[in-house]
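Incident log, support desk, overnight shift.

02:14 A customer reports that sequence design results differ from what the structure should imply. Their input is reproduced verbatim below. On-call engineer (initials T.W.) acknowledged and began investigating.
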């Protein structure tokens, strides 16, 4: 690892020792998003939000302060020289890996059994897809109203 590469920091991620709920999933999404804000993104549309678009759904992304467009993932290639584009893509991949590692840390491995390959690895999924999996697998429709009320109190 070079001096410019950032370590994946798990200290601000709350470890969840029970079944995922809407509250724990939302809390982890906010913690990971907050951490990704400090990672530089070459697209000027991300403003001070850095790489946090990796775990934010499109509708919520457009509500963020000063964001006027969706991150397309390739818009910076037209603006930057080839070397800068490569660096931006490397930062994107590092941030995506950091976000996934944080999510995998926050929830137990058995919560992702459906996504594991033959070797027991969770590969080929984005951080946003991991959050969607947790919500679809563990958040029951009948519990949503109670959890939304509790989440509102916590926020």
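02:41 Re-run completed on a clean worker. Output:
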């Amino acid at each position: 690892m070079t001096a410019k590469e950032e370590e994946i920091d798990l200290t601000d991620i709350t470890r969840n020792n029970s079944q995922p709920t809407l509250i724990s999933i939302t809390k982890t999404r906010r913690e990971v998003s907050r951490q990704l804000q400090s990672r530089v993104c070459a697209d000027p549309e991300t403003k001070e939000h850095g790489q946090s678009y990796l775990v934010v759904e499109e509708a919520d992304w457009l509500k963020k302060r000063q964001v006027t467009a969706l991150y397309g993932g390739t818009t910076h290639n037209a603006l930057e020289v080839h070397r800068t584009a490569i660096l931006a893509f490397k930062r994107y991949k590092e941030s995506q890996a950091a976000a996934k590692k944080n999510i995998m840390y926050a929830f137990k491995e058995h919560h992702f059994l459906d996504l594991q390959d033959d070797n027991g690895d969770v590969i080929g999924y984005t951080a946003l897809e991991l959050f969607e999996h947790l919500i679809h697998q563990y958040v029951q429709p009948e519990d949503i109203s109670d959890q939304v009320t509790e989440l509102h109190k916590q926020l």
